[in-house]
């Protein structure tokens, strides 16, 4: 069982030749609404990969919230503790220009209402083999959940995004820290992701720094660094590659696989995801991951 305490957003994406200057209006190409948020993305990735997943979070009493709930449910995720609150569902307002650069305004909305653990949250965490956390909910509840999971012996996987300097006390309760290279450098102030990984491994039991097309590096307690190569594939869209990686990593942990096998499955799943558009639409099923690995 995997519990995810995290964000659910609707991404409102416009494509345009160039983003408007202040006070200016431009005509764009296209508009799309895409369910996202790191919490919901990781929950979906884990469920597709065969995990038995409970999602803990909040949406508003609105169409976006209902669409997110339906999407999670359609993949068999338990949404019994997805609260409906008196704020709008979280949104990310994303402008992508023709060069691929983007600018984003995130309105946390309902996600900001998840401020403390409830008894049902605690029950779901206790029942889990692994708890997935990110930093898109209020930091206090993330810290409370990590401390609670630690106290009841449930392993915690933290994606430190969006990156902010974190208290050592939070990192000590995390079993697996999974930053991408930028996040690893922001967390430590190091200017090299490998150096950042080594520094983080002194504060946290196991660290995986993901390096995009360069793969990932795993630093476990006292073991030599393990390189996790990326699979060479044709890239279409890297959205949610990291979330796919973490969701599948959690399934491996819950099933008791060794780090090496777990990370290989995570790399395979994210290689599949970068060959497809979008977040939820790009995450592979367990069968697809098995098939890819047996090529
Ligand atoms: P994030 O999406 O959080 O920035 P990364 O870009 O580091 O995360 O990607 C996470 C993982 O996805 C990598 O460790 C790698 O296994 C896989 N991946 C990312 N980009 C590619 C790529 N271009 N080709 C193959 N695998 C990739």
TrEMBL record:
Signal peptide: none annotated. Its main location: cytoplasm. Pathway: Carbohydrate metabolism; D-ribose degradation; D-ribose 5-phosphate from beta-D-ribopyranose: step 2/2. GO terms for cellular component: cytosol. Homodimer. Residues 1-286 form the Carbohydrate kinase PfkB domain. This is Ribokinase. GO terms for biological process: D-ribose catabolic process. CDD domains: ribokinase (cd01174). ATP binds at residues 180, 210-215, 242-243. The gene is rbsK. Keywords: ATP-binding, Carbohydrate metabolism, Cytoplasm, Kinase, Magnesium, Metal-binding, Nucleotide-binding, Potassium, Transferase. It is an enzyme of class 2 (transferase). It comes from Phytoactinopolyspora alkaliphila. It comes from the Bacteria. It holds the Pfam family PfkB.
């Amino acid at each position: 069982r995997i519990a995810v305490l995290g964000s659910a957003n609707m991404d409102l994406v416009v494509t345009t030749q160039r983003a408007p200057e202040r006070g200016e209006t431009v005509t764009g190409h296209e508009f799309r609404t895409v369910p996202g948020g790191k919490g919901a993305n990781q929950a979906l990735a884990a469920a597709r990969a065969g995990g038995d997943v409970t999602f803990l979070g909040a949406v508003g009493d609105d169409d976006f919230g209902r669409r997110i709930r339906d999407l999670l449910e359609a993949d068999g995720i338990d949404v019994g503790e997805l609260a409906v609150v008196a704020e709008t569902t979280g949104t990310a307002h994303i402008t992508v220009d023709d060069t691929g650069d983007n600018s984003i305004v995130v309105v946390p909305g309902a996600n900001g209402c998840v401020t403390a653990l409830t008894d049902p949250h605690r029950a779901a965490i206790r029942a889990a083999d692994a708890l997935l956390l990110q930093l898109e909910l209020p930091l206090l509840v993330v810290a409370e959940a990590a401390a609670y999971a630690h106290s009841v012996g449930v392993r915690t996987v933290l994606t430190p995004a969006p990156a902010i300097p974190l208290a050592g006390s939070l990192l000590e309760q995390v079993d697996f820290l999974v930053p991408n290279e930028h996040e690893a450098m922001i967390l430590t102030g190091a200017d090299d992701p490998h150096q950042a990984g080594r520094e983080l491994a002194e504060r946290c039991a196991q660290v995986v720094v993901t390096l995009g097309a360069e793969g990932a590096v795993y630093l476990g307690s006292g073991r030599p660094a393990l390189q996790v190569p990326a699979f060479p594939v044709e890239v279409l869209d890297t959205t949610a590659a990291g979330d796919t990686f973490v969701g599948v990593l959690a399934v491996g942990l819950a099933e008791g696989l060794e780090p090496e096998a777990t990370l290989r499955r995570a790399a395979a799943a994210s290689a599949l995801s970068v060959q497809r558009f979008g977040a939820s639409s790009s995450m592979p099923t367990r069968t697809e991951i098995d098939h890819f690995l047996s090529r």
